[in-house]
From TrEMBL:
SMART domains: TPR. This is Tetratricopeptide repeat-containing protein. It comes from the Bacteria. InterPro entries: TPR-like_helical_dom_sf (IPR011990), TPR_rpt (IPR019734). It comes from Chitinophaga arvensicola. Keywords: Signal, TPR repeat. TPR repeats lie at residues 84-117, 118-151, 190-223.
């Protein structure tokens, strides 16, 4: 009998060692982000421990294979339901699958097992947010921010929820709180300052908006959207010399190929209201001399639905230059029609004069001298 018991103990010890060895290998593969190797080597293995099953499920999670992720997380939980990580990854997967009610149960299970993990509260907040249960979302985002090592997301989601609730004052308060708590090197820090600049600018608090966008640029000199937003503040204040510094920086960035997406071709440097319409003013980087016509500064007239109604723009005119005339001609476009107002400008023209001419066109004080359809 003693020999049999000893033999059983040896078998059990060997099995435990094998399981520990498997988990160690899986952890190393996970740390090295070799998720394909994990799936290839272990997805069909028999008798994996709960922790090993978790690692396989996590590999499927990273590969965005939701069904297999859930399969292995369920197997891991069935073997040992006391690992909060398995409940959390299952909840996160269910969030991606838009099965928010099921996700809530998983996050609550994870929190019950580890109530000090910020990610678990944040995931629960996301589930409530997507169900439009904003009070519950806020409660859990706030709890997440109070935990040690909290990521940026719950900090950023708190003002977002307040914006969704049309509680702009609380959203702005949360944004100002963020810039005192998040690392200046983090994306969340610059994003919070950027949103502060947006809100303060819309409220007419241009000094505060200027400070916000300067803070963005101080933290991230490659945030070229902040350059354009800062220019809009300066144009509103008629601080054109300050704006010129950032115009030059944008042109330099364009020449160096640093601009992306909608800033590759042009940037918005001014916005103002005329009657019930928003006027957005863009400038393109393209410069002469050229043998063809191109738009340089474009005033987009935006209706109350947010659609562009028509545009008024300075057009580079090679023919006018050849005849000794101005470099740009003020024109308009609406639908398939093109209008020439016969008003010329050069590069040294004062912006106030150009803006005044555009407003007079809007007021129908200037009529086109030619038009085509």
């Amino acid at each position: 009998m003693k020999l049999f018991i000893s033999f059983v103990l040896v078998i059990l010890s060997f099995t435990a060692f094998a399981q520990d060895s498997t988990v160690s290998k899986l952890k190393t593969l996970t740390d090295n982000r070799q998720f394909d190797a994990i799936i290839e080597q272990y997805a069909t293995s028999a008798n994996l421990s709960a922790e090993a099953l978790y690692y396989v499920g996590y590999a499927y999670f990273i590969k965005q294979d939701d069904n297999n992720c859930l399969k292995f997380m369920d197997l891991a939980i069935a073997k040992d339901g006391k690992d909060p990580k398995a409940h959390y990854i299952k909840g996160s997967t269910l969030n991606y699958m838009e099965e928010y009610d099921k996700a809530i149960a998983c996050f609550k299970a994870a929190i019950a097992l580890d109530p000090a993990n910020a990610d678990y509260y944040s995931g629960l907040g996301d589930a409530y947010y997507n169900l439009h249960l904003y009070d519950s979302a806020l409660e859990n985002y706030h709890k997440a921010t109070k935990q040690k090592g909290a990521e940026e997301r719950p900090f950023l989601m708190i003002p977002q929820v307040y914006f969704d609730l049309h509680q702009e004052d609380k959203a702005l308060e949360a944004l100002y709180s963020n810039v005192t708590k998040l690392s200046p090197e983090s994306a969340g820090y610059t994003r919070s300052w950027f949103n502060i600049g947006q809100v303060e600018g819309l409220r007419g608090n241009y000094d505060k908006a200027e400070k916000a966008f300067l803070s963005v640029i101080a933290a991230d000199s490659t945030d070229y959207h902040a350059y354009a937003k800062l220019m809009q503040v300066y144009y509103h204040n008629k601080a054109y010399e300050k704006a010129a510094v950032y115009r030059t920086k944008l042109y330099d960035a364009h020449k160096q190929g640093k601009l992306k997406d909608n800033m590759q071709d042009m940037f918005c440097f001014d916005q103002f209201k005329w009657n019930d319409k928003l006027i957005q003013v863009f400038e393109r980087y393209e410069e002469g001399p050229q043998s063809r016509i191109f738009n340089k500064q474009i005033f987009y007239i935006v209706d109350k639905d947010g659609d562009v109604d028509f545009s008024i723009q300075t057009e580079y005119s090679p023919i006018s230059i050849q005849l000794g005339g101005p470099k740009y001609i003020l024109c308009g476009a609406k639908g398939g029609a093109h209008f020439n107002y016969g008003i010329g400008f050069n590069d040294d023209a004062k912006y106030d004069h150009l803006k005044d001419a555009v407003i007079k066109i809007l007021e129908k004080k200037y009529a086109p001298v030619a038009s085509t359809r």
